[in-house]
Automatic annotation (TrEMBL):
Belongs to the radical SAM superfamily. Biotin synthase family. It is an enzyme of class 2 (transferase). It catalyses: (4R,5S)-dethiobiotin + (sulfur carrier)-SH + 2 reduced [2Fe-2S]-[ferredoxin] + 2 S-adenosyl-L-methionine = (sulfur carrier)-H + biotin + 2 5'-deoxyadenosine + 2 L-methionine + 2 oxidized [2Fe-2S]-[ferredoxin]. Catalyzes the conversion of dethiobiotin (DTB) to biotin by the insertion of a sulfur atom into dethiobiotin via a radical-based mechanism. The keyword Signal does not apply. This is Biotin synthase. Its cofactor is [4Fe-4S] cluster; [2Fe-2S] cluster. Residues 1-13 have a biased composition (Low complexity). PROSITE patterns: RADICAL_SAM. The lineage of its organism: Bacteria, Pseudomonadati, Pseudomonadota, Alphaproteobacteria, Acetobacterales. CDD domains: Radical_SAM. It comes from Acetobacter conturbans.
Length: 335
């Protein structure tokens, strides 16, 4: 196992030096970090985490599917794809009032950010106007806003910015090399183009990936290196553990060793120390101990509520109980 000794910026001395934000991480460097002895890896991640964040604070987001099913993309992990043998029934876009009612409940439950997801390849103009009304309403409740709507052009990104959007989620999913094994209906560059349009519009970026799709360690390193080498790191980095859904091509994917998953969280924290690293999909099947290790390795954001877009999430009571046991607290909403 590599000991990371060739990483010039990260010494193996007992006290790692303060690490400035870097945007030139290589796959080889990231892979060496993934292979560090576990205690050393968590020490480095926790040390950097404390330089940028309160290690006892967790940011809470709630995610709502505002338009479910019928997506023309063929993402191998997603039950919303219309191309899979078993798929979710396509539904219409939710009404604005219904979305705002859900946002109010999320705020009352302690969410600081309300995320809205629609199963589109890219939004049509009339749908975008409805989403902008949702954004304006959610902002009026005092919540941060985030949407994920598929690909955006420059004009659409600026329209969302004008509506007051805080964050746009568009994950790269995996490494550039493995991407084609998971999705064929859009390219990796398509993803990057949308992210560039979002950045140019002045919207914060939420961008991460998925672990457990059959990728190798090198692909996990490639995914993190791609994120950490962006000119500006994503403000939010969701790291998802694959939720295997019947009827999707990845329904029988091999399980991920929990320690290997924690390693990905830790390396995301080390390479993007000022970003919120979100422990996203897959928590329903994690033990409290695995989640605790993720928090210790630098995860400081979770989705709160019993469902994500279409898959289960731990009950709010379980999350509260775990955070209370750990002596941790959630981000306080500004008034």
């Amino acid at each position: 196992m590599a000991d990371g000794s060739s990483l010039s910026a990260l010494s193996t001395s007992p006290t790692p030096p303060a690490s400035p934000l870097r945007h030139d991480w290589t796959r080889a460097e990231v892979e060496e970090l993934l292979n560090l002895p576990f205690p050393e890896l968590l020490y480095r991640a926790q040390t950097l985490h404390r330089q940028f964040f309160d290690p006892t604070e967790i940011q809470i987001s709630t995610l709502l599917s505002i338009k479910t099913g019928g997506c023309p993309e063929d993402c191998a992990y997603c039950p919303q794809s219309s191309r899979h043998e078993e798929r979710l029934k396509a539904e219409k876009l939710m009404a604005v009032d219904g979305v705002l009612a859900e946002a109010k409940r999320a705020r009352e439950a302690g969410a600081a950010r309300f995320c809205m997801g629609a199963a589109w390849r890219s939004p049509k103009d009339h749908d975008l106007e409805a989403v902008c009304s949702m954004i304006e309403g959610v902002k009026a409740l005092g919540l941060e806003t985030c949407v994920t709507l598929g690909m955006l052009d420059d004009r659409q990104a600026h329209r969302l910015k004008d509506a007051g959007l805080d964050y746009y989620n568009h994950n790269i999913d995996t490494s550039p090399e493995f991407y084609g094994e998971i999705i064929s209906t859009r390219t990796y560059q398509d993803r990057l183009d949308t992210l560039a349009n979002v950045r140019d519009a002045g919207i914060n970026v939420c961008c991460g990936g998925i672990v457990g799709m059959g990728e190798g360690e090198s692909d996990r390193a490639g995914m993190i290196a791609s994120l950490a080498s962006m000119p500006k790191h994503p403000e939010s980095v969701p790291i998802n553990l694959l939720v295997k859904v019947a009827g999707t091509p990845l329904a029988t994917a091999e399980e991920v060793d929990p320690i290997d998953f924690v390693r990905v969280i830790a390396v995301a924290r080390i390479t993007m120390p000022a970003s919120h690293v979100r422990l996203a999909a897959g928590r329903e099947n994690m033990t409290d101990e695995t989640q605790t290790l993720c928090f210790l390795s630098g995860a400081n954001s979770i989705f709160y509520g019993e469902r994500l877009l279409t898959t289960p999430n731990p009950a709010a009571t379980r999350d509260r109980q775990l955070l209370d046991r750990l002596g941790m607290h959630t981000t306080v909403l500004s008034k």
